[in-house]
Amino acid sequence: MRIDVAGTRGQTIALTVAGELDLTTTTDFLPSMQDALINHLTVILDLTGVTFCDSSGLNTLIRLRHRAMDASGQFVLVAPPQQMLRLLNVTGVGRISPSTAVWSKPGRPNQLQAPRPRLDLATAPSV
Known about the structure:
This protein is α/β, with parallel strands linked by helices. The chain is 31% helix and 31% strand. Strands 1-2-3-4-5 form a five-stranded mixed beta sheet. Helix 3 links the parallel strand 4 (74-78) and strand 5 (100-103). Helix 1 runs parallel beside helix 2. The protein is globular and about 30 Å long.
């Protein structure tokens, strides 16, 4: 498993995750994510590179979501692979709380999609 920082802005950190999220890798994954949640109110995980997720990985994501909620933060999953989407849909995890958003790449069929952000015209640059 590999975790890289894609960027930070204020209290938000974006991370990319690659590899398998399973019993073997969650022992390293969980502490890394807990550290991110301690230092940032919003943690965004780009899951494009995740090749497999089992029940241990799912449990870890649920624990992290609860930790974010307890801190009044957000834990956002971006572009989960099809296998993970099925796992989230079947278990209903993606529908438990609005503090967990699951976004997928455009044109990718799935049941879990966050609404598209609205453009705030008051802060939009003039053309």
